[in-house]
Amino acid sequence: xxxxxxFCRWLLAAAASIEREADRLTELDSAIGDADHGVNMRxxxxxxxxxxxxxxxxxxxxxxxxxxxxxxxxxxxxxxxLYGTLLRAxxxxxxxxxxxxxxxxxxxxxxxxxxxxxxxxxxPGDKTMLDALTPAVAALGEGYGAARxxxxxxxxxxxxxxxxxxxxxxxxxRSVGHRDPGxxxxxxxxxxxAEVAGA
Length: 199
Ligand code: ADP
Ligand code: MG
Ligand code: MG
Fold this sequence. Notes:
Layout: E1 2-3, H1 4-32, H2 37-54, H3 60-74, H4 79-94, E2 99-100, H5 102-120, H6 130-139, H7 144-156, H8 181-197
Antiparallel strand pairs: 1-2
Bound molecules: adenosine-5'-diphosphate (ADP) and magnesium ion (2 copies).
């Protein structure tokens, strides 16, 4: 079973990973966007880490809802509301239990990913964060390590895709040949989850 501390450790590990990789995320966004993805993610996850450290909630659901709210309110770019929605919807799906099973985690993240799809209107293949998140959630039934591998593969597989959503879609065919920044940050978030799960 996974408690609130597990989810706090996930998000703190994610914040540390985002901090380390922020320049690379911004570099990817400079090729097919507006060169701010690392800046947006760093600001958002620093706010998440600060909020969790100053007042850690006592249920898994409340941890994710708090983190989601921070991302929505602190990040101006498209990724803030999208990642915020992912975490908030997943947190709501976990309800008020003090401990949740890995099966409940999988179902909650699936609900979060579905909410991202509804908010942004993207589907897998559109060269967005969903190209990493969707296969990761699908693989989660086989464990956290399988989810990490699926997210990494999904992010890499965005290179030949043409962007159909978000800023990169303005480039049309010129978006082909570049790795999607959001799919790359999604793979970092899934890798952080696998890390704290010991996978
Ligand atoms: P912005 O594009 O507003 O500058 P960011 O650079 O922080 O925001 O985030 C860009 C990333 O957001 C993209 O690489 C893509 O993965 C993701 N994204 C953009 N639009 C959508 C959408 N409609 N659905 C899902 N993900 C999206
Ligand atoms: Mg951007
Ligand atoms: Mg921007």
